[in-house]
Structures are given as C-alpha cells and as structure tokens.
Amino acid sequence: MKNLILAAALLISTLGCAQKEETTFKNEGLENVMVTKENQPITFAEILKKYEGKTIVIDVWASWCSDCIKGMPKVKALQEKYPDATYLFISMDKTYEAWLKGIEKYEVKGEHYLTSDGMKGVFGKSINLDWIPRYMIVDKNGKIVLYKAIEADDAKLLKTLEGLSKI
C-alpha cells in the first residue's frame, strides 16, 4: 500500500512539473523586431504573416553554436523529405556580419532573420529559450504544434511533420 501511495505521489508531482506546451506565441515575441538579410527591420508577427497557410519549421540557431552546426545535415535531410514546409531560421548571432557569413559558410537554405538581442532577449524569453538549436513547428493555421525539440531528427518532430504532410 505504501508503494502504491508513493507511486501515485511521484506521478502527480511529475505531471505537475511537466512544462506546458505552448500553442501560440506570446505578444512580446510577436512584437519583437528582427532584421532581414537585407538589414531591414521586421517584427516576428510580420514574418509569420508572410508564411501564413504553410507549415513552418523554425530553427533557432547561431553560427557560433557547435550543436547548431552539427545539426545542419539533419535539417537538410528534413528539407529534402518535407520540401513543402517553409524553413525559418532565427539567428541568435551577435552581429549582422557574423550571421551573414554563417549562412554562407554552412550553406543554410531557407528564410533567414536575426534577433536583435540574443538568446536572453525578448524573443528568447518569449519562447522559453534555454538551448540552441531549438526547433519548433507551426501548422498551416498558425498554431504551434511542436513547441520544443533540440534535435532535428527528434521522434516528435518527425512524427509531427509526417502528420502535417498528409493534410
């Protein structure tokens, strides 16, 4: 009986500590001003609006991040397997020049934007960013259907994309 009570208490505490999966972006994140490759300001809301009606795979990365670079072949494999999705790369690079060099050096194909204030800034805080790379998926209706993955071959990420590709 003690074991049963202990197991129940452990289950309740584990479920209570589980991080809630967000399905919408916070206003502060949507209002955050980023920069285009042409060095023009754009809000995250405007970026999402550009790709309305499409499945969006968001890759939060930086050219200085070794895990991000190691993950790029997996991202390229995703792009080959799911070519109809839009691949949106949000960079946490510290400078505009470093960001552009990173895109070219690592041959990153997709839509590119640079945050203005790094991982601990407004956008990073709005998505609870604690690690990069960070992958998110937004469905055709603009709903976040995968809030957090840190590997481009994460089983949940692949299952989510597979499900969305059949719609």
Automatic annotation (TrEMBL):
Domain of life: Bacteria
SUPFAM superfamilies with a match to the protein in the record: Thioredoxin-like (SSF52833)
Pfam families per UniProt: Thioredoxin_8
UniProt keywords, alphabetically: Signal
Key word NADP present: no
Domain Thioredoxin per the UniProt entry, residue ranges: 19-166
Signal sequence interval, chain numbering: 1-18
UniProt name for this protein: TlpA family protein disulfide reductase
Organism: Flavobacterium lacisediminis
Lineage: Bacteria, Pseudomonadati, Bacteroidota, Flavobacteriia, Flavobacteriales
